[in-house]
Amino acid sequence: MAKSNLSVVQLRCEYLDNPLGINEPKPRLSWVLESSRRSQMQSAYQVLASSSEKDLKGGRGELWDSGRVESDQSTHVVYEGKPLESSQRAYWQVRVWDQEGNASDYSDAAYWEFGLSQGDWQGKWIAFPTHVNNTASAPCPHVRKLFTAKKKVARARAYASALGLYQLHINGQRVGNDVFTPGWTEYSKRVQYQTYDVTDLIERGKNGVGIIIGDGWYCGSVGWFGRNHWGPLAHALLQLRIEYADGTVETVVTDGTWEAGTGPLLTSDLLNGEEYDARLAIPGWSTTRFDDSDWKPVKTQDLGTVPLLGQHSQPVQEVLELEPKKITQNPTGSYIFDLGQNMVGWARLKVKGPAGTIVRLRFAEMLNPDGTLYTMNLRKAKCTDVYTLRGGRTEVYEPTFSFRGFRYVEVTGYPGKPPRDAITGVVAYSNTPPTGTFECSNPMVNQLQSNIVWGQRGNFLEVPTDCPQRDERAGWMGDAQIFVRTACFNMDVSSFFTKWMDDVVDSQSPEGAFGDVSPRVKPIGDAAPAWGDAGVIIPWTMYLCYGDTRVIEKHWAAMVKWMDYIAAENPSFVRDKRLNNNYGDWLSIAAETPKDLLATAYWAYLADLMAKMAHVIGKQDEARQYDELFAKVKSAFNRAFVKEDGKIGDDTQTGYVLALHWDLLPQEKREAAARHLVADIERKGGHLSTGFLGVGYLTPTLTEVGRLDVAYRLLNNRTFPSWGYSIKHGATTIWERWDGWTTDKGFQDPGMNSFNHYSLGSVGEWMYHTVAGIDVDPHKPGYKHIILHPRPGGGLTYAKAAYDSIHGRIVSNWRLRKGKFEWKVAIPANTTATLYIPAESEEEITESGESLGEAEGVRFVRMEEGFAVCEAASGEYQFVTGQVPALVG
Asked: Is the pLDDT of residue 889 over 60?
């Protein structure tokens, strides 16, 4: 039999590459198929898993041999092999058969490793022996221990965590490159740990291990609410498992035998910054050579009952570095370094000078008119690092447990004139891999896409935060749900949102209320409409974009509790009770949509999503119940808010957008409502007035009702309010408010004025799925079947986008040239697509120089509103058609 042209690549377990220390007993396995030919599909697969990579090479699956499974499934294949023990590694590989029954080669081997079960933890939490001051950060504890590896080491794993933050060192070397570990969770419900392969760091004989402990989210400053939200004292936890060559195992754990001291890190706070005195450095503190005779025994605390779970998402890491674009000096003598990009992370300082010299770094997103830092919008966040030189040779400093959002760095006290490399911007965020690219012929729109991506980088740090600079940085639910589809295009956020949904559910109240923020931060209470509703919207989006049903099944009960929480106080099916903070269409401009209208529209939307998700996981009775609820809320919405002439509520753009987009209107009133929507835009001079809730649906709704021209006008606007207005005035990220800064009023209220806040960037979804034309089919989610439907307009002469879906790379590049529409398309192997090709007839379309009827892999179906609708198999295609003036004028 011939060999298949399919090759199996990009093996992942629970969305991750070769994860260590996961606690999922039945992880899901996924792979991508590639082929140089068109129309290649998987008809069957076989997965082998073994505790030995050598066994795999011999074609044996000692842990699991799935056998030949007749299926085209290449994502979320559940491991059904032998249960793994703690610390056990499973190697796995896949081969597939194509549609003609030809087998591929086996893939290269990948692996995952089970972590520690809850009962396998042996140590205790350890902390500095004296309590931290409850009102300010104290010196960061350094804890250490010596141990002896008596034999030849074959394999070693470090399982580490903290109530707070930790940085692990072994024999003088930092372990791993993750930062802000173990991450932020609802600490009363779960604590994450990380697993590191430290085999190469353990020496035969004596060894030293040490941990630096920071306050972090656990007991440091969070939001504007002060400190100690989960506890008054940071603790660390370590279990070091050493396997010797003879098969024996030794374990080193945190317990009362560890010693504690302090070093140069005098204060460290996520919001306020760090003070570091290099004269107090303690070289070799995690080695066997260090004298710890004046250190004190640590304070210990039992592990308790809160589960410790291995991190199942990408950690925060240093991802990029930025060099200064410009340096200026203020009359005060300080220097301002402009990095040219609003970013999140910290500044690396390079300096040489006398011992005791104090260099102060302050940070800001914007400058005042006189060139000084604009810091009023930081509120109580100090965002300041203070470094005291040790003296002598060149010194390099970067903070350990603190980050901030900034573009400008003010350097005060630098000895002499600082060179350009005195400051480097270190960009850090949850290292979610980039998956999407978008570009078009309009440079302003390209800058908008850049701003959206940078806003996502800056605010996807452990949780989807609202802003990275001021004293807030909370996981606001409303922001996350309106941006999630855009986020899924830009980066692989599958594991990021899987983790965060655990935070959302862990933060649910006993009554069923989700929080405004997750993890919850007191005194922020139960969630408002559209904010708590993220607990339903995020799982649905995960299903759409990644084909993930487990996230629905896992959190179904929590979603039902939220729906019951809403229904219990709203028997009229108008959602006007239990609205809590009820933010409405947050930060809308020159418009005020009634809050009960918004709440009721969202309730209907949730009912529709719950019905769809119930169908997906086989709960047909519940699906019918939620379909009935949708009908009842829709009817109540029309009675309460929709007038006979099709006007809705107070005649705002957001009111029309939600009603139209979520199918809340009777068919006979849709056209009138669409006219009223466009009329309001025209009354406002062709400008939008939507806030957080309406903005993401505005351009899609205009497209749906046949006003693509108006959608493009909004995209292209450069006058206030618009995306282009902020870009015209130098924005490199999305602003929190349309009027964050204006030429006539300057800065807005500093009490709430972030210049890196992704919510208003939710237009990015429309840019991908309408301008470029890449969209998901909800009936075959995860881009198993793809909708490719570009809609040229707005004066654009080209748009090109690529998206690395869970099934492989999708490409849509179109160009208007010499009176023709040219379109390059790539459809991954093992998927299919529906194509909408702008054309006046089937006959005018060619593919790779051939008539459409002769093209391999593509079949014409029908003409529909100026598009030739075709079904296509996997492969690369090049279509050319006559330009259609109605679409591109």
From this structure: no
Angstrom CA distances, 746 to 721, 729, 750, stand at 14, 11, 11
pLDDT digits (tens, 9 = 90+) for 532-544: 999 999 999 999 9
Q: Are 128 and 219 in contact, with CB atoms under 8 Å apart?
A: no
Half-sphere exposure of 855 (CA within 13 A, CB side): 27
Per-residue pLDDT at 292: 94
Instruction: Output the pLDDT for position 758.
Output: 96
Q: Tell me, yes or no, if 871 is annotated catalytic.
A: no
| C-alpha to C-alpha distance for 338 and 359, rounded to whole angstroms | 18
Residue matched to tokens 């491991």 = 79
Q: Give the separation between CA 787 and CA 869, rounded to whole angstroms.
A: 10
Catalytic residue selected from 186, 472, 765, 842: 472
805/370 Cα distance (integer angstroms): 47
Q: Is the distance from CB of 213 to CB of 192 less than 8 angstroms?
A: no
The candidate with the shortest Cα–Cα distance to 492, out of 730, 313, 617, 288, is: 313
Averaged over 219-225, what is the pLDDT? 88
Q: Where are the beta strands (DSSP E) in 626-781?
A: 741-742, 746-747, 774-776
Q: Is the pLDDT of residue 885 over 80?
A: no
- pLDDT, tens digit, 9 for 90 and up, residues 12-27: 999 999 999 999 999 9
Residues 6+ away with beta carbon under 8 Å from 877: 823, 824, 825, 826, 827, 847, 848, 855, 857, 858
State pTM to two decimals: 0.97
Cα 687 to Cα 470: distance, rounded to the nearest angstrom: 29
Joined together, the tokens standing for residue 629 give: 């609820």
The residue annotated as part of the active site, out of 113, 186, 410, 736, is: 736
Rounded alpha-carbon distances, angstroms, from residue 105 to 29, 108, 480: 18, 9, 42
Is there a catalytic annotation at residue 439?
A: no
In degrees and rounded to multiples of 5, residue 135 shows phi and psi of -115, -10
Q: What pLDDT is attached to residue 60?
A: 85
What DSSP letter does each residue of 492-550 carry, written as one string? Answer: --HHHHHHHHHHHHHT--TTSPPBSBSS--TT--BPPTTTTTHHHHHHHHHHHHH---H
Among 121, 118, 95, which residue's Cα sits nearest to residue 108? 95
Closest CA to 530 of 625, 634, 611, 600: 600
Structure tokens at 47: 């997965």
- Alpha carbon separation from 766 to 10, 238, 470, 515, 696 (Å, rounded): 28, 46, 30, 28, 8
In SS3 terms, 322-361 reads as ECCCEEEECCCCCEEEEEEEEEEEEEEEEECCCCCCEEEE
Structure tokens at 246: 């003879």
Neighbours of 37 (CB within 10 A): 15
Average pLDDT, the chain: 96
* pLDDT one-digit tens code per residue, 52-84: 998 888 788 999 999 999 999 999 999 999 999
Is residue 483 within 8 A of residue 762, CB to CB? The reply is yes
Q: Taking 50 as the threshold, does the pLDDT of residue 888 lie above it?
A: no
Cα distances from 811 to residues 378, 541, 543, 632, in angstroms, run 41, 21, 21, 41
